[in-house]
Specification:
Length: 275
C-alpha cells in the first residue's frame, strides 16, 4: 500500500488493541508518533531506498511464479537472488519472534539485542502490505509494477493502481477527500457488514502468534480474480474497474487492521493472563 493504505490499516488496528497491548505499543513507539501507530506505519517505505536499510527492500512482498494463482512458502519465499526466507511472510514471522521473545522475558523489552521499535514498525507495515493483493503478485511482472495501464486518463502501472489510485479515487468520489471519513466507513463495515466474518479473520491455525501464509494465499487469489483480470498491458481502467475493485481494497484494509491488532494482542499478552 501507499501512505493512505498503511495509515488506515494501523489506525483500524490501534482501535482493537487490548489495554496491555496498547500500553506496550505506546512504550515502543518513537516520540515522533505522538502515541499514534498510524503516524509511523509508512516508515519502512521511507527508509527502503536509503543505504542503511536497502536490505529491507525485498521484504515488502512475495512473488509466486507467473500464472500460479496460489502461494507456497517454501517455493516462493526467497529474494531475487534465490536466498530463502527473504520475503514479506518471513519478515512477519521474524519481527513477531523478536517482539514476543523480548516481551516474554518481560523487563528485557528495554534491553533486547534487537531494536524493538523498528521491529514494531516493520511488523505493522508488513501485515498491511501482505494484504495488498499485488504484493503477492507474479514474479514476471513484479507484482504488477511492469504492467503499464491508464487510470482514467493517467499513465501509471497496475501495482500503483492497487497501492494508491483506487484509494485516491475513493477519497475523491465518496469520502469528501478525507481519509478519516473513509476509515470511519470501513470501521462501520467491521461492526455491522462483516460482523460475522471478523472473528474468523483474527484466528491463526495451530496457536501461532502470527500467520502470514494464509493472508498471502488470499492475496494471490484476489490478485488473479480481481487485480490482473481485465488489466492487460496498455489498457484503460475506469469506472467499471474502480467500482468493482474498491470493495476488495476496503475489505483488505479492514482485514489488515483486524489481523495486525490480533497479532499485537497475542505478542503483548503476558502468559500469566492466558487462562
Ligand atoms: N514492489 C517492488 N517490487 C515488487 C515485486 N516484485 N512484487 C510486488 N511488489 C513489489
Ligand atoms: Zn506496493
Ligand atoms: Zn511496503
Amino acid at each position: 500500500w501507499g501512505d493512505e493504505g498503511h495509515y488506515a490499516t494501523c489506525k483500524i488496528a490501534q482501535g482493537y488493541l487490548t489495554e496491555e497491548a496498547l500500553a506496550a505499543v505506546k512504550r515502543l513507539l518513537p516520540e515522533s508518533a505522538g502515541g499514534d501507530l498510524a503516524a509511523v506505519c509508512s516508515w519502512p517505505d521511507d527508509v527502503r531506498r536509503t543505504p542503511n536499510y536497502r536490505w529491507s527492500a525485498g521484504l515488502h512482498f512475495v512473488n509466486p511464479p507467473d500464472f500460479q494463482c496460489n502461494y507456497n512458502y517454501s517455493r516462493d519465499c526467497h529474494d531475487s537472488a534465490g536466498n530463502k526466507d527473504r520475503c514479506v511472510s518471513a519478515a512477519i514471522y521474524n519481527y513477531t519472534l523478536q517482539l514476543s521473545t523480548a516481551y516474554r522475558n518481560d523487563s528485557s523489552v528495554l534491553e533486547s539485542k534487537y531494536n524493538l521499535t523498528e521491529a514494531l514498525l516493520f511488523l505493522s507495515h508488513f501485515i498491511g502490505d501482505i494484504h495488498q493483493p499485488l504484493h503477492v503478485g507474479f514474479v514476471g511482472d513484479k507484482g504488477g509494477n511492469s504492467i503499464v495501464v491508464y487510470w482514467y486518463q493517467n499513465k501509471t502501472n497496475l501495482h500503483r493502481v492497487w497501492d494508491d489510485m483506487i484509494i485516491y479515487s475513493a477519497l475523491n468520489t465518496f469520502y469528501d477527500s478525507d481519509l478519516t471519513t473513509m476509515i470511519q466507513s470501513i470501521q462501520r463495515n467491521i461492526t455491522d457488514g462483516w460482523l460475522n466474518e471478523v472473528s474468523s479473520w483474527r484466528t491463526c491455525p495451530n496457536n501461532y502468534i502470527a500467520c502470514p501464509d494464509p493472508y498471502a494465499s488470499e492475496s494471490i487469489s484476489l490478485a488473479c480474480k480481481y487485480a490482473y483480470k481485465n488489466a492487460t498491458p496498455g489498457s484503460t481502467l475506469g469506472d467499471d474497474y474502480f467500482l468493482t475493485r474498491l470493495p476488495i481494497v476496503e475489505k483488505r484494509l479492514a482485514q489488515g487492521g483486524i489481523r495486525l491488532a490480533a497479532t499485537l494482542n497475542r505478542i503483548f499478552t503476558h502468559p500469566s493472563k492466558i487462562a
